[in-house]
Design brief:
Elements: H1 2-29, E1 34-44, E2 50-62, E3 65-76, E4 83-96, E5 99-111, E6 125-139, E7 145-153, E8 162-171
Antiparallel strand pairs: 1-2, 1-8, 2-3, 3-4, 4-5, 5-6, 6-7, 7-8
């Protein structure tokens, strides 16, 4: 019995080393997959007006395609003034050189009660315009994700063309930890 316990005790560090090595190998072959907290600015192409935007982007690779999910927040300009809005969406991209290039579809969820989070139960929400974006994403030498988006209204929607620049770092997924290979 002691020899079995000793064997397990000796094997445990080896198992940890194998798992860490496998994670590092995955990170080298797939550096984009993961969760990133990003912050940036959206600029109206016509007027030059800007607004802050921030939130999470999750990238995952399936085959040769990267899938993106985003949950961001911004203060969206309306005729009654800026209102807090969630920006939710998905996209797909392919690796072109050292960058991801793709298309995304997002939608705004606008708050209707000033000063109240639109996720709060029973708070009236309004679904805002659907937006289509062309985007490019790259990793900086320090591991930061940089995303540039060109945004336009989806067919039948009203939305002023904008550009968005995001920059952020890899973070732990809810309930998880940041991989060892992450900066």
């Amino acid at each position: 019995m002691r020899s079995r316990a000793r064997a397990v005790a000796c094997a445990a560090p080896l198992l940890v080393a194998v798992v860490v090595a496998a994670e590092a190998s995955r990170a080298e072959s797939d550096p984009f997959s993961g969760t990133f907290y990003v912050e940036g600015v959206t600029e109206d192409v016509r007027t030059g007006a800007t607004r802050a935007i921030a939130g999470h982007v999750v990238l995952s690779k399936r085959g040769e395609v990267y899938h993106a999910s985003a949950q961001l927040a911004t203060d969206y300009p309306t005729s009654a003034g800026a209102v807090h809005s969630d920006v939710i969406g998905t996209g797909e991209a392919r690796l072109r050189g050292d960058a991801l290039e793709g298309e995304a579809s997002t939608q705004l969820v606008l708050q209707r009660v000033p000063g109240v989070d639109p996720d709060f139960a029973f708070v009236p929400r309004e679904v805002g315009p659907r937006i289509v974006s062309s985007f490019a994403a790259r990793l900086e030498p320090d591991g930061a994700l940089v995303v540039l988006l060109s945004n336009r209204p989806a067919a039948g929607e009203t939305y002023a063309a904008t550009t968005t620049k995001l920059r952020g770092e890899r973070v732990a997924m809810p309930g998880g930890s940041v991989p060892e290979s992450a900066p």
